[in-house]
Amino acid sequence: MNKAKRHWIIVSFVVSIILLIIKFYSFHITGSKAILTDALESIVNVVASGFAFYSIYLSAQPRDQNHPYGHGKIEFFSAGIEGVLIILAGIFIIYQSIIALVYPVELQMLPFGMVLVGASGLANGVLGKLLAQKGKEYHSLTLEADGKHLMTDAISSFVLILGVGVIYLTGYYILDSVFSMIFSMYIIYNGYILVRRSVAGLMDERNPASMEWAVKVLNQNRKNNWIDIHNMRVQQYGGDKHVDLHLTLPYYFELNQVHDEVENVEDVLEENMPGNVEVFVHADPCLPEKCCHYCQVKNCAVRKYPKSKKIIWNASNMSKNQKHYHELSDAL
């Protein structure tokens, strides 16, 4: 998988360099500040792809004494760097557009420049779509972020062509700066989205998709002996995940039985969740006066209270640091 990630990020890096040259040549022959915005974003593409390659290489390194959870979080850092570069490019574009408003320049060879931008936009769109798909397939935020960035670049390129076309048909060259500023705001917004996701990952913000996946897996493989699961947390480390949870088991289980049930929970999550998954399970004994009402153990010899309800496991109640005896669920 890591070899495949490196392959796609290298493809992205090489293509970004080629398109960078094409776009700057287009700006050179036309003098359009709007086309310059596209060219400047291509610099970001090249830098981001280079850093993404390093982050994928580093995230693939095994855990060590200094990094017990591995190196996967570098992918969040990579996405954040890419987002910051996109924002800086957008700010620079606004600066260039203001200068062009004060000192307007007549544009040249716009039709040929539009063809070059259109071809590069099409290439970015196809590559971006592939990278986004591969990012989801390999659970790589770096690939997914790079792909979405390229698709954003492709969209802005095609919108840019429409804007330059209007300039060419009307002869209002001042519109070049106006369109540039509009595009730059769109670029800055997309940079902010990437930075937001990066900070969320570095701060271990809850990932709803990963949590829902874990809940679904546990519900599909639920056993009667698993009386309760609570205080569950799913942390993302690049393409890897770390799951912590508390498992309530019958208090009369011997240590070997507890060990087997804990391993069963670990195996269920590790085998059915995407990516590399590490699971830590803390075992709790059941409390008859609180757990008997929803305990699903059949023919329990020590049951003190009749079974009256079944707790429906979901992301909300499984993440709470308390047993589910307080839950009001559908009666059996």
UniProtKB/TrEMBL annotation:
The keyword Ribonucleoprotein does not apply. Pfam families: Cation_efflux (PF01545), ZT_dimer (PF16916). Signal peptide: none annotated. Its main location: membrane. It is a multi-pass membrane protein. Residues 9-203 form the Cation efflux protein transmembrane domain. Residues 227-286 form the Cation efflux protein cytoplasmic domain. Keywords: Membrane, Transmembrane, Transmembrane helix, Transport. The chain crosses the membrane at residues 7-27, 39-58, 79-103, 109-132, 153-171, 177-195. InterPro entries: Cation_efflux, Cation_efflux_CTD, Cation_efflux_CTD_sf, Cation_efflux_TM, Cation_efflux_TMD_sf, CDF_Transporter. It is found in: Membrane. Belongs to the cation diffusion facilitator (CDF) transporter (TC 2.A.4) family. This is Cation diffusion facilitator family transporter. It comes from Echinicola jeungdonensis.
